[in-house]
Structure formats: C-alpha cells, structure tokens
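Figure S7 source data.
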Amino acid sequence: MRHFLDLHKVPADDLRAILNQAVETKTARAGQGKGACDADAPLTDRVVALVFEKPSTRTRVSFDLGVRQMGGETVVLSGSEMHLGKSESVADTARVLSRFVDMIMIRTFEDATLLEMAEYATVPVINGLTDASHPCQIMADVMTFEEHRGPIAGKTVAWLGDGNNMCASFLHAAGQLGFDLTFGGPEVMDPDPAAVEFARSKGRNVRIERDAAQAVAGADLVVTDTWMSMHDAAEAREKRHALLQPYQVNAALMAQAKPDTLFMHCLPAHRGEEVTDEVMDGPQSVIFDEAENRLHAQKAIMRWCVEG
Ligand code: CP
Ligand code: NVA
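Tokens for the predicted norvaline complex:
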C-alpha cells in the first residue's frame, strides 16, 4: 500500500513511471466513450472515498470518472456533512473509512489533516490539495508540458504571483524531475522555503525575481494561479490584489518570454485578475489539456497506490 501525499515524498523514478503510465492509458483510450471501462479495469470491486472540505470541479469530476473508468465505485463526501475533525478525530475517521473503502482521496485545509489521515488509514491516501500543496495537479501539468514540448528535464518554469500550494508542488517536481524554476512575485508571498531548499538540494536552479519581465525571460513555461486561494482570508483580498497586480500574466508579459513559451493555469481562473483573456485563450495556452490530463495522471496515481 502506498500513499500519494507530496511529490518530494514519492521516489523520482516512481513519478516518472506514473507519468509514462498516464500517457499509455490516455493513448489506449483514444476514441472510446468517456464512460468506457479500461481493458484491465484495475479497480474492479474497489470503492474509493472522495472527501472534499473545499469546493472543487476538476478534482471531483476527474477522480470520480477515473475510478469508474478503472472499474471501481466512488463515495463522494463533503466535509461539512461529516464529523471529520469536528465531532470525530481525523484519526478515527481514517480508521472507519478504511473499513468501508479501498482508497481515500482528500482535499482539505491544513497539511496536518492529510498526514493524520495517512497515518491512521490502512488504505492508500491521496492528496487532492491542501493549503500547502497540490501534487496531482502538477503531475497533470508535467504530462501536459511533455505532450507539447517533450521532456521537461532541463527546461525552465516561471511561476508568477503568489508562492502558494501550487508553487510548492512545482518546486517539488522541479527537484524530482530535473527542471529549473523562477519565481516572480512579491517578497511577502515568496514560496515555501523548504520547497525551494528541496529543489536546490537536487541541484536545480531556483531564482527569486521581483520583476515580472525578468522572471519570464527565457522560460519554457509560464504558470500562474488565483490571487486568492481557498484558504486565504477574504479580508486580505484588497491588499493581496494590490501586491500581485504587477505580476498579472497578460500579452505584454508573455511577449517578454519566448514565442513558443507555453502558458498554464490549474483553473479556476479569475480572468482579468491574475491572467487576461488574451493569454487564457491565446495560442500559447494549454489550460484545457491540463484540465483533461488530471483524469489520466490521477488514474496512473491510483494504480500506483493500489499496486504498491
Ligand atoms: N485545479 C483544480 O484542482 O480544480 P478544482 O478546484 O476545480 O478541483
Ligand atoms: N491555489 C488554489 C488552487 C486551486 C485549485 C487554491 O488553493 O485555492
């Protein structure tokens, strides 16, 4: 049994094997209906709990569909309707869920909740986003980059804006999969120092830039994310927006990168804030491939978990 908690906690060779598997299953399914079951149906007779303490469109639909394509069933649970961490400890919830289901995907707030779930569950636990990281998304992002541009090793990713949970997982991926990362954003929103240190400890070049144009210069991929993550306090909105405005990804900023630089956003996007329509809908944008690849990447992650 294997948990998929964070990209720096999974061996690099396993991440590469998961990415290969994702491409293989995606290719094998080409032309089939979305509800068609994969030939080997590796989740036959298995049930997966999908626990959401925060809203979700992509994670919810892609995991639900992925489990079905693999021959399994899902139980989708909303945190607000569960005892989880309120009238029952996370540890006891983990023990109980483990008696009913074969795998748990959880989207939660604090990383500690994910870790407690993994410590006490006797079935695999997958991180579907915490305040600190979003590893499944970055697996889909790397898959998408490689579909369009070939191996990501040796390339440079520019992260613009808030050094948030997504940025931390990109840094973990940089260390594991061999690419460099330039952060362009305000100092108060610098990325998690431990994630920066992880990437650097693996020999990757992590640059911190305060100037957006400098940050995207030479990048092979420009990525941004919402200026207000789901865990950010509503009252911080005005201040955060003022600090982040210089890092908006617009056509003028993309022009500072290379003509074939790709643009990604995990979505949901706030058009006109962190990114403009012209970039979202422009020729360098691969945002909907990214969204689709959540399905294929997560199916490979689930297979890795159960085949442990
Ligand atoms: N990118 C992502 O995780 O989307 P959802 O919040 O819709 O799941
Ligand atoms: N940083 C965002 C990602 C959403 C998928 C958030 O945590 O809300």
